[in-house]
Amino acid sequence: MKPNLDQTTLSEAAEFLAKTLGPPPPIGIVLGSGLGAFAEQLTGARALPYAEIPHAPMSNVLGHAGKLVFGRIDTTPIVALSGRVHGYEGHPLERVVFLVRALAKWGVTRVMLTNAAGGVNLAYQAGDVMLIVDHMNLSGMNPLTGHNEESMGPRFVDMTRAYDPKMSDVLRQAALQQEITLREGVYAALAGPNYETPAEIRMLRALGADAVGMSTVVETIALRHMGVRVAAVSCVTNMGAGITGDTLSHQEVKEVADRVAGKLIKLFSMALPRMAEC
Ligand code: HPA
Q: What is the pLDDT of residue 55?
């Protein structure tokens, strides 16, 4: 049976990170659309283009830089993955989750995931920020399909508290302090790459989803499998199809993501060092 991850390639990537960057930081962040500028906040930063990391996948989506940045906020070491690959690009799932797994294998124990998402909850509006408290994997994809490597994690992974309550609390507190309205909701992941139809958005709302996107859940699953604590935030870049009458475009998604980025970067700069201690 096809292994769902190749231990050797993963170990080689993790060993490269240890050799090049030293001991693992307590926390990592995956930067979704528009959030690449977060990496520029890190002091004493060292950037590694994905091309330099053994076996790392390359992203093809415009606006995804594709580099790992290791630096600090105050005294807290932080690693940022700027640019991710998606299943819809045609990458096998073990490639999609390769870098977050490599962080875990290096020894990173907490990861903050971020993304751009469409608003499904009618109370939301474009520009909102949503703490992901739970998810629905409607993508039809799962990074754990295939042989389970017991040394990495269990065959049947508990997902009761997939999103870490303590890390989430840190985000709530930081948002409160910065007077950022933090929505809370359920993120539904679809495979993409097309945006949803209005009927699909109504279906997702009926199912209990608050936001919809094409990433994050496979990373959450792979990280929880390895026992890594996860928190996640969506930038609601647009309302789901059919809600406002406007059509959707990647251009609009990027523009709103860029507009909200400053606020999110401030939020993460405060929250990540605290998460590293919680
Ligand atoms: N649907 C799915 N993914 C998205 C959307 C959307 O409306 N906006 C940003 N990412």
A: 87
What is the homologous superfamily of the domain 7-275 according to CATH? Nucleoside phosphorylase domain (3.40.50.1580)
**Residue of 170, 166, 134, 128 whose CA lies nearest to 272:** 170
Backbone angles phi, psi at 140, to 5 degrees: 75, 5
> Which DSSP letter does residue 65 get?
-
212 C-alpha to ligand 1 centroid (Å): 6
Q: What is the pLDDT of residues 93-123, one digit of tens each?
A: 988 999 999 999 999 999 999 999 999 999 9
Q: What is the DSSP letter of 219?
A: H
Gap between the Cα atoms of 251 and 55, Å rounded = 31
Tell the residue nearest (CA) to atom 9 of ligand 1: 117
127: enclosing H helix or E strand: none
Structure-block tokens of residue 62: 């415009």
Phi then psi for residue 249, to 5 deg, are -145, 150
Q: State if residue 237 touches ligand 1 by the CB under 6 angstroms criterion.
A: yes
Q: Would you tell me how many other CB atoms lie within 10 Å of the CB of residue 159? A: 15
Cα(65)–Cα(84) distance, integer angstroms = 9
116 is catalytic: yes
CA distances for 138 relative to 28, 112, 149, 209, angstroms: 26, 21, 24, 11
